[in-house]
Specification:
Bound molecules: adenosine-5'-diphosphate, magnesium ion
Largest sheet: 6 strands, mixed
Number of domains: 2
Strand content: 15-25%
Strand order of the largest sheet: 6-7-8-3-9-10
Distance between the termini: 46 Å
CATH class of the largest domain: Alpha Beta
CATH topology of the largest domain: Rossmann fold
CATH architecture of the largest domain: 3-Layer(aba) Sandwich
Helix content: 25-40%
Oligomer: single chain
Radius of gyration: 19 Å
Order of helices and strands: EEEHEEEHHHHEHEHEEH
Length: about 260
């Protein structure tokens, strides 16, 4: 594992993250980093803490302990950092607003504008920047359409454009392709890869498909019980290593099933 010597130059450094919900420890000292230009995938069984870790980094959850440093700036627990954006499996766009408005909304935080943008006309310079972001994701021609009319894959790319308009340096993605068909998944993964390669973003993505993780990421982090099991170059993570992440969950399921069967015997 290389996470015990965090790279001082990394764009995102997560060190000793802890989080419990009630009695349940969900993050148990999680430590990892992601550099500019790097795509890192997080793999792990359901409940291993993947979403919670990203939600802590983006400020949607307040960690109990640990530090999050982005581009040299230490975050305040539970507070959003303008340099970190996140996209989700369930895409959060305002379906009745235009694609362009949805992208402009990415800049609300950094411009200190109100969140209630339903009556707001965005400044021209912002609209131009948003158009450039849409162009970056290949959807400039859809700018005037209502976001809700686009396909799932296109909406996910709009969500990425919104992150670009936020001028994020770290892009977090929680199962960004789980709701998409294979062709759209491929497009979104290619986009994340090129944002790292060509734009220097630091990308961390929770994926459920080990093959996608291997093809598109530089490193794969394996999570179990809220801590790292491995942090390895993607090419070195074989099927057995991946299967090991899910085995405890399977064994627990089998044990529960066996207990139930016994109960009714
Ligand atoms: N807001 C919450 N309140 C209570 N428990 C939570 C909350 N969010 C997540 N959990 C629990 O934390 C554990 C880890 O969840 P999560 O980070 O979503 O896992 P993953 O994304 O790896 O499936 C799960 O057991 C989940 O039930
Ligand atoms: Mg999750």
């Amino acid at each position: 594992m290389r996470a015990d010597h965090l790279s001082a130059a990394a764009t995102l450094r997560v060190d000793g993250l802890r989080k419990a919900f009630g009695e349940k420890t969900v993050l148990d000292g999680l430590t990892f980093d992601v550099s500019s230009g790097e795509v890192v995938s997080l793999l792990g069984a359901n409940g291993s803490g993947k979403s919670t870790s990203l939600r802590c980094v983006v400020g949607l959850e307040r960690p109990d302990a640990g530090t999050i440093v982005v581009d040299g700036v230490t975050g305040k627990p539970g507070e959003a950092m303008p340099t970190v954006a996140m996209v989700f499996q369930k895409i959060h766009l305002v379906p009745r607003r235009s694609v362009l408005d949805n992208v402009c909304a990415g800049a609300l935080g950094r411009l200190g504008l109100s969140r209630s943008w339903s009556v707001l006309a965005f400044p021209r310079e912002l609209q131009e920047e948003a158009m450039a972001c849409l162009d970056r994701v290949g959807l400039a021609d859809r700018a005037r359409e209502k976001a809700g009319r686009l396909s799932g894959g296109q909406q996910q790319r709009v969500a990425v454009a919104r992150a670009l308009c936020q001028r994020a340096k770290v892009l977090l993605a929680d199962e960004p392709v789980s709701a998409l068909d294979p062709a759209a998944s491929e497009q979104v993964m290619n986009l994340l890869r090129s944002l790292a390669d060509d734009d220097g973003l630091a990308v961390a993505a929770v994926l459920h498909q080990p093959d996608l993780a291997r093809r598109f990421s530089d490193r794969i982090l394996g999570l179990a019980g809220g801590s790292l099991v491995f942090d390895s170059p993607a090419a070195e993570v074989d099927d057995d290593t991946v299967a090991g992440l899910y085995r405890p969950a399977l064994e627990a399921l089998e044990a529960a099933e066996a207990a139930r069967t016994k109960e009714f015997a």
